[in-house]
Amino acid sequence: MITPSLPLGIGFHAAGAFLAANCYAPQKYVKGWAWEIFWMAQAGWCWLLWPLILAFLTVPHLSRVLAEAPHDRMLFAFLMGVAYGVGGTAFNISIRYIGFALTYSIAVGLSSVLGTLVPPLVRGEVAAILRRPGAAYVLLGVAAGAAGIAICGMAGRLKERSLRASEGKRGEFSLSRGLTLSLIAGVLSAVYGMALEVAAPVANLAEQYGAGIWKGNVSYMFVNTGAFVTSLLYSLYLARRHGTLPELVRLPAAAPASRIASNHLFALLTGTLWYGQFFFYNLGHVRLGAHYAFSSWAIHMILLVLLSNLLALVFREWGGCSGRTFLIMGMGIAVLCAAVVMLTYGNRLGEAG
């Protein structure tokens, strides 16, 4: 049996959020690749290879688990992963039109709320949850998290306006396109958390075969590979359209011979950091216990935004912004911290009760 531990649960979620907050950093060092080639290469690690490798290494009797698990659950989890992949693609395109901050606040905020509340609504567990000790704090934490994400998005929007003004160009800004895509991204990204709920019987069977705290790794075999299929198809479409597929194995003769190897290395690092958030998400989720495990998605998303913005401040990515921007960012970070405290306290009361 897995012993619940709230400190471990929150700690593992924080570790996963920290890795996710840094997963795009290696992309800065990729040279000579079109976006679709990089996306395809990192997706191969994040959504295909690491899920298969870790499931093989951590789930005993994996072949038996797959043979005995309900096939409809595995199929539905895979299809929901395909939808999540569409959301991830919409997220990246939305950034082009309305910037990272607005996309992040809308998509992640919406994903946090929907991914947390929809599963218990579908299972008809809301009334039972509301009767548990600490339920009010958990729900307030979810609401505060969404508000904090929105406030951080306001600060990010002010930052992007300042940068655009200083650079003297508008770019491809389109509010209507960006909002539409970020809403799609938020809804479909929330599907990832729901897909893990769908795959729960498979994970529980893995636990019976001795997987223990690693039981969630079997779920990623279906959800993540579904996202990989979407990413692969979209990347191949763009590569064919732009004629960039050869870049996967060779670069123009003028490029240094070592660049293709370094590009693949940075794609591996990106995919590993991104998969790391899923790896630690599972460890955090199983440690929260039965009462408020549904809050895992909100905790993870809130910590992701909190740590992303704190790291941006540490690395001086907000240099040159006005005092008003820093004030709003400080308010957003304070609200996110309060959300984490409320979620933690609510889970603690549920654990004690």
User: How far apart are the termini?
Assistant: 19 Å
Secondary structural class: mainly alpha
Gyration radius from CA atoms, angstroms: 21 Å
**Helix content range:** over 70%
**Helical stretch tally:** 12
Strand content: under 5%
Largest sheet: none
Give the averaged pLDDT, no decimals: 85
Run of helices and strands: HHHHHHHHHHHH
Sum up the overall morphology in one term.
globular
Whole-number tally of structural domains: 1
Plain-language structure description:
With 353 residues, this protein is an all-alpha fold. It has one domain. The longest helix is centred in the N-terminal third of the chain and has 53 residues, at 71-123. The protein has helices spanning 6-21, 35-58, 62-68, 71-123, 126-130, 135-167, 175-198, 200-208, 217-242, 259-287, 296-314, 323-352. The chain starts with 5 loop residues before the first helix and ends with a helix.
Task: Summarize the model shown.
This protein is mainly alpha-helical. The protein has twelve helices and no strands. Helix content is 78%, strand content 0%.
Keyphrases for this structure?
about 350 residues; mainly alpha; about 80% helix; globular
Write the SSE topology:
Layout: H1 6-21, H2 35-58, H3 62-68, H4 71-123, H5 126-130, H6 135-167, H7 175-198, H8 200-208, H9 217-242, H10 259-287, H11 296-314, H12 323-352
